[in-house]
Structure formats: structure tokens, C-alpha cells
Specification:
Length: 132
């Protein structure tokens, strides 16, 4: 019930609602679902092929490479199908879950960021030190 209430909230963006619903209904890992392209989806059958977690490329002799991964089929329900239809409106190729934001400095936090820490000048500045 908590997941359904979270997905039903109006202030949550369509992209996140679709991703959460798809993760909930398919029981797939986030890394797997985020790597899905529109071409991989079978919307009529409500399924898609995705690379299993841990997919990697192995090197072979003479510099050749081959992809070494397992392909799994995941299925979703009507809730994900409705959200996917709205999310993919007008698109026929490319990644399913794209962002409309560009990465920039304002979205990044410093490496030493501590949760709850206020960045910027301190609220109270200490006065001059007393002489020793």
C-alpha cells in the first residue's frame, strides 16, 4: 500500500513514477531498468528484454571483445503500461528513462558533504581572539 500511495502522488514527476512502478512490478534492479531502450520494449505483450545485473565486456585474444551477459525477460502490469504510454509519447527510439535536466555544478555536492550540513558562511561569526 505504501508503494502505491507513493506512486499516486501528484507532485512526483512522470519519469520517477514510471520508474518506481516498473521496478515494483518487475522486481528488476534499478541498473537493469535504467539501461532499457525503447527499441527493447514490447508494449503489446507488456515485456522487455534486459541485461542482467553484472553485465560486462570480456577481452579476448588479439584485442577482440565480446559482450558477456545474461538476457532476461521481465513483464509488467497495466499500471506500468499506462505510465509508459504517457512517458514515451512521441518518441520511438533511445533510452526510456531520460532526464530533462543537464548535469551541472549546482546539482553536485562537494565530496566531503555531510548530510544536514549547511553550506555557506556560518550563522554566527566568532569575534577576535583574546590576546595570550
Amino acid at each position: 500500500m505504501a508503494v502505491v500511495r507513493l506512486i499516486a502522488r501528484r507532485e512526483v514527476h512522470l519519469r520517477e513514477r514510471t520508474l518506481w512502478r516498473m521496478l515494483y512490478e518487475t522486481c528488476a534492479h534499478a541498473e537493469e531498468v535504467l539501461g532499457v531502450n525503447i527499441e527493447d520494449l514490447d508494449l503489446a505483450a507488456r515485456r522487455c528484454l534486459l541485461k542482467a545485473k553484472g553485465a560486462r565486456i570480456k577481452g579476448r585474444r588479439r584485442g577482440q571483445t565480446r559482450e558477456d551477459f545474461v538476457v532476461e525477460t521481465v513483464y509488467w502490469d497495466a499500471g506500468t503500461a499506462r505510465l509508459l504510454f504517457r512517458l514515451l509519447k512521441g518518441r520511438s527510439q533511445g533510452p526510456v528513462f531520460v532526464t530533462h535536466r543537464r548535469p551541472g555544478r549546482e546539482g553536485r555536492q562537494p565530496a566531503r558533504c555531510v548530510p544536514g550540513h549547511r553550506h555557506g558562511p556560518p550563522l554566527l561569526r566568532p569575534g577576535p581572539r583574546p590576546p595570550r
